[in-house]
Specification:
Layout (H helix, E strand, L loop, with lengths): L1 H18 L12 H26 L1 H14 L4 H27 L1 H10 L11 H19 L3 H30 L1
Helix pairs in contact: 1-4, 2-3, 2-6, 2-7, 3-7, 4-5, 4-7, 5-6, 6-7
Length: 178
């Protein structure tokens, strides 16, 4: 799975080179990086809170969490961290750094959503959640001018959600054993 994200990052970097748009990788002033980190954390926390709220009120989002728990099996926080770093870097370099600078926020978000279609009906809400998250991540890039707030938000969301999915799956397993 890591190689998929490495490939996305390489294609994204190639596309950025082709478009001569490497400005999305480097803040105009280094001091702005602190601002990008804060914006990324705030965006990530917003998406995490939104996903928890939706999980409580939208049955298909609850089913999505359970589906991921069944599909992913057991993993450690270290694995979640590695997956979060790889996916956020690979996807943000490709979708925000390359596609968004070429096609815009809306079109790149549609492609992002389409690539988040799951293997069965349990994952029906995933593309819709991915579309909304992509709109926010794209807006973070527009606001900051670089991909770093988006990378931080995306990584935070994936890390926290993967650990949440694991905890929910473990709790469900304990409940079934009792």
């Amino acid at each position: 799975m890591i190689w998929l994200y490495v490939g996305l990052a390489l294609v994204g970097l190639g596309g950025m080179y082709w478009q001569e748009s490497f400005g999305a990788l480097i803040p105009e002033e280094p001091i702005l990086m602190l601002h990008h980190i804060v914006v990324g954390i705030a965006g990530g926390l917003f998406l995490i809170l939104a996903s928890r709220g939706l999980e409580k009120i939208v049955p298909s989002v609850e089913t999505l969490t359970q589906g991921f728990g069944q599909m992913l099996g057991q993993f450690t926080p270290r694995h979640a961290c590695l997956a979060a770093v790889a996916s956020s870097l690979g996807e943000e370099i490709f979708f925000r750094g390359f596609l968004q600078s070429w096609w815009g926020v809306l079109a790149s978000s549609v492609v992002f959503a389409l690539l988040h279609i799951g293997p069965d009906r349990r994952f029906i809400s995933w593309p819709f959640l991915a579309f909304g998250a992509s709109l926010l991540l794209g807006s973070l890039m527009v606001y900051t001018g670089t991909i770093w707030a988006s990378v931080i938000a995306h990584g935070l969301v994936n890390f926290v959600n993967l650990n949440h999915i694991q905890a929910r799956a473990a709790a469900q397993q304990l409940t079934q054993q009792a």
